[in-house]
């Protein structure tokens, strides 16, 4: 029988035991960067369902911001704004196609 301390010393924390998909890893890294470890599953779901360029743009926006109270709230706000802009652009493209 080994002591618990010796077992914990040999345990590799950096090993990603339950991560089998790339989006899971990205979501976990995003949660850690935003300091929102309580909502890891939210960020994993966002990484799976949202376009990666929107997530990256919002992440960079938060990273560049200074004196932020809540990085996660700022991230969600920016992501919402980017999705609305994307939706407007798609609607404009559809109108242009219909008018031709």
3D structure, described in words:
There is one protein chain. The chain is mainly α. It has one domain. It has five helices and no strands. Helix 2 crosses helix 3 and helix 4 crosses helix 5. The longest helix is centred in the last third of the chain and has 29 residues. The termini are far apart.
Features:
single chain, 100 residues, mainly alpha, 5 helices
SSE layout and pairings?
Elements: H1 4-10, H2 22-34, H3 40-49, H4 52-64, H5 71-99
Q: Could you give a quick summary of the protein structure above?
A:
The protein is mostly helical.
Number of separate strands: 0
Gyration radius, rounded? 19 Å
Count structural domains.
Answer: 1
Helix content: over 70%
Distance between the termini: 78 Å
SS class = mainly alpha
SSE run: HHHHH
- Low-confidence parts: none
Q: DSSP strand (E) fraction?
A: under 5%
Number of helices: 5
Major pleated sheet: none
- Mean pLDDT score: 88
Shape: elongated
């Amino acid at each position: 029988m080994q002591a618990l301390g010796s077992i914990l010393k040999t345990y590799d924390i950096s090993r990603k035991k339950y991560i089998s998909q790339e989006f899971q890893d990205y979501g976990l890294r995003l949660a850690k960067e935003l300091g929102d470890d309580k909502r890891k599953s939210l960020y994993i779901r966002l990484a799976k369902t949202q376009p990666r360029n929107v997530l990256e743009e919002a992440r960079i926006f938060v990273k560049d911001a200074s004196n932020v109270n809540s990085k996660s709230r700022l991230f969600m706000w920016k992501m919402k704004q980017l999705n609305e802009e994307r939706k407007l652009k798609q609607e404009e493209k559809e109108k242009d196609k219909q008018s031709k």
